[in-house]
Amino acid sequence: MAQKPSIPKGTRDFGPSEMVGRNYIFNTVRGVFRKYGYQCIETPSMENLGTLLGKYGEEGDKLLFRIQNSGEKASLAPEKGLRYDLTVPFARFVVQHQNEIAFPFKRYQIQPVWRADRPQKGRYREFYQCDVDVIGSKSLLNELELVQIVDDVFGQMGVRVVIKINNRKILAGLADVCGQPDKLVDITVAIDKIDKIGLDAVKQELFEKGLTEQAVAVIEPVLTLSGSTEEKLARMRELLAGSETGLKGLEEAETLFSLIAAAGIAQPVELDLSLARGLNYYTGAIFEVKARDFAIGSICGGGRYDDLTGIFGLPNVSGVGISFGADRIYDVLLGLDLFPKDAAAAATVLFTNMGEKEVAWTIPVAASLRSAGIACEIYPDNTKLKKQFEYADRKGIPYLAIVGDQEMAGGTVTLKNLATGEQRSIPKDALPSAL
């Protein structure tokens, strides 16, 4: 019996129509990244397991896909794993190639990552990340640039978003003033889930992690703080007065928001003190972007990390980056019907096949269109015109170019608009400009 074809759970095939949408996303973000002076790199799908372990926290380590050693002596070869994100491989790349790159190093990377997660709606085991990072500079101008990039990308796509910003130093200050500085990771991991599980469940998790009633009483009002950025900062200054780290975080947030105000960002930007980002390596500003008109998790996120390269032997090199979630952005664009209408067609025009001599006459005409940058096809088989029409329709090709005896004699092509049914006779040399 023939085997029924299938793919692993949590992975997907992308047909031509989906790839049109995905390439629209990749091309848009790539164009914006390059506009800001970022250069492209790629790293291998697998890394040595030692590179990945311990960088994503306990929960992250559990989600690493491990690869069985094969093709080399298993006992001698280091264990390997599929990359979990693009940031840790980027840090490894920077350290390994530090003598070949110019600092600050601005790079972007668009590649798949893998997580051994439980597959569910919007959560896959294989998915693409579109990362943009700058490493080797502590300037908050880099943070501003990332906000501008987000604003530019979603502005081009016509997606209304809100850009949420917090600072890990503010959260560290919060752990200080509630008397539990050693619980910073527990606090951030718990409050990072507030959107998913709600305030009461977050408080419950904090109690389970050993935080006292008094500590949770300090944290709770911060998570529900409302008002303008200025009002939030003023309230936090009172609360964090006893924490040097916390006050430094507030100062950085204030500077970043004044830069954002001067840059004239079109999308709303807000200080969200409940924003934690679960990854352990963030040390400064943290970002999250949400669609305003479509219910889905964050579609973009990132932050400042002060010593990610230190784990590979290059200490004190600060970086900041942000990652665009291509799969979720696709769902938003699809759900809001924002994909460009003309992007789906495989070709602009299909030439009919009426026989050998007609095709021989058509080949140089099609070649002239392609030279002019117009995508076209010649139907490969001499078959009923109705079948050729249906093929063009199914592929979303907007024009049919009919070539028969009459057209060859007059040196023309009959061009039919398949949407309106209108047809006109065009000299073959004028076809590129007509299309």
Number of beta-strand segments = 16
Percentage of residues assigned to helices: 40-55%
Average pLDDT metric: 91
Shape type: elongated
Distance between the termini: 51 Å
CATH class of the largest domain: Alpha Beta
Strand content: 15-25%
Structural class: alpha+beta
Describe this structure in words.
It is built from 17 helices and 16 strands. The protein has about 425 residues and is α+β, with helices and mostly antiparallel strands. The protein has three domains: about 5-160 and about 295-345, Bira Bifunctional Protein, Domain 2 (BirA Bifunctional Protein, domain 2); about 165-265, no CATH class; about 345-435, Anticodon-binding domain (Rossmann fold, 3-Layer(aba) Sandwich). The radius of gyration is 27 Å and the shape is elongated. The relative contact order is 0.11. The model has no long low-confidence stretch (mean pLDDT about 90).
